[in-house]
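Why predict the complex rather than its parts? Because the way molecules touch one another can change local conformation, and only a joint prediction can capture that. The input here totals 688 residues.
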Amino acid sequence: MEEILDERSERVLLAVIQSYIEHPDPVGSRYVTKKYDFNYSPATIRNIMADLEDMGFLSQPHTSAGRVPTDKAYRYYVENILEEIKDDSDLLEVLNKKIRAGTEDVDTLLDETSRILSSISKYLGLAVSPGPEGSVLRKIEFVPYKDDRIAVVILTDEGVIRHKIIKNELALSPSELQRISNYINRQYKGFTIKEIRENLAEELRRDREMYDNLLQRSLSLCREAIYTYGSHIFITGLSQILDLPEFSDIERIKRISKTIEDKHAIINLIDRIMDSEGVQVIIGTENPLSEMKELSVIVSTFKEKGRPTGVIGIIGPKRMDYSTVISLVDSASRILTKLFDQGG
Amino acid sequence: MEEILDERSERVLLAVIQSYIEHPDPVGSRYVTKKYDFNYSPATIRNIMADLEDMGFLSQPHTSAGRVPTDKAYRYYVENILEEIKDDSDLLEVLNKKIRAGTEDVDTLLDETSRILSSISKYLGLAVSPGPEGSVLRKIEFVPYKDDRIAVVILTDEGVIRHKIIKNELALSPSELQRISNYINRQYKGFTIKEIRENLAEELRRDREMYDNLLQRSLSLCREAIYTYGSHIFITGLSQILDLPEFSDIERIKRISKTIEDKHAIINLIDRIMDSEGVQVIIGTENPLSEMKELSVIVSTFKEKGRPTGVIGIIGPKRMDYSTVISLVDSASRILTKLFDQGG
DNA sequence: TTTAGCACTCCTCATCAGAGAGTGCTAATA
DNA sequence: TATTAGCACTCTCTGATGAGGAGTGCTAAA
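Output of the joint prediction:
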């Protein structure tokens, strides 16, 4: 599967990619020799580049243009060539400070993180809050609100807070609500939302005949409360990437802004990532979302108690500065993980 | 101040504007006579158009092009020509249904409303939740959370729910927190957040010497809780307006997307509107935000108990279909107002 | 007061040629 | 045998040119 290039070809490939990352113009053989002072003539480089094209690493927009890296080239670059990840302590400082200064509500924190990632990288910042599997119930409160309404507040170990208003169809009194809160808290604290959902379905089925009135009420109320619990997704910095030369094409901008608005699709994408360790790099067509075939996505999970809970990342053009971005995402996820383990 | 046009000029102006709204190409005299069958020749129309240009209603991109309406023309159009507002009951149906089906949390409701306005109008949807002046405290709860954290939940009469995590620096016990909740609720229920803020500052100053310990704690905790309370702003549908021909210019798109991201500026704009009755139309350069000089903003407040609480609206190109959009915004604000007065 | 006629202006679009960048191939070279 | 110089070729890009068209303003006639 994995092709190995001899050192010389690799150097040429690296040169083409680097040049293309700097400015998105097709790279010619002469330019490569001059800029990266090879000890070979343009003709030799041309031969090598022709070989690289045959192997699928480079492509030509048209016969007499220079070469452009393919997705395969970027993949090879990320896998094999990339220098060690540098810890950019300046940026980390900013990130760290901002994160600590802010509120501790996870949604706000992630929104902020996404913005920071965007402003440092000049690409799109991405952050996804813990979903039902990653959210451990800490406390649930049923607070009487207007006449026939109840406000439910859910607090999780991870720091996610969610609220919801539901109808008080059974006309439960404040003291009953208090008792229900207590019951659910006793019963389900420490379980993930997903586990609670499943448990609840089970119990409701089982208790249908046993018919303990308050219990039934509690359970169905609780079910309603956590029914809509899901990840929140933050994508920020659209105006940043509009400055990039590859987005001078309006059709592209349209596609991208539609993709960003469709958060549903992105949640699906994220689900696949949750199982993997470390920083994930998804280049162009590797992405199952075809709308993102001209973009690369760099993501990493952050963890709480060793379990992946959420995702942060950066979305940018394929010709992005991978080493910087990867280390940035990596560092950010470490910072968040540390923060979570302290704060938990 | 207000110029009056004779009927014939007005008809010509109307024709130019309507044509330009249909498609953004400069309108020529011949086209006007043909399309809107005037009983005059192109030459006559030309003379009229030249007069309208002198008066500042029309302008020419270049000597031998047709005419384009100026901001002044749109203003005149909106003030004088616009037919009566039509109640588009189909759209209202959709809006009404969607709004009722959704949750009752105001932020979610407004987000949804903004999306609906956008999808119906094909422009940007705008919605702003009640700020400190428009939010009447219904209930505040201090819930013990992690070790040294308190979750504060604020419920308002309008249906806004806000939560915040604050540090429990004074190590207050759950029962103390309960007592504080009770105290604040008794004291401040029915006041707006703004009033509470002012009151709180006052009381804190007064009590500094009197020194009732729990009271002091309650007040400062409460202050911290409502300190950050502010409007939330929802602007949706960027990808919608990218399809419009006037946004085929990238620089424009950049400007607009930057403007949208800077919600701060928009909040300022909104503040001015809160005092006015009915639907407001802000055309191009009338807008204090210079970044929006190529856009028009149609907004209206919605009310609770006769008091304006929030704002909804539509942002689009200047050559928008004003009568439809105005009636849409008007209807939407009525629906929300009704909803609020029932639900309150 | 209205309109026909006309010269004029300016934009748009297609065409074309020349410059430039880059290639692949071949033959000479180290 | 690997490398390189040379060269013909291909393709894009740019700017110039010119025809066509839409629309105007002005003048003079109806």
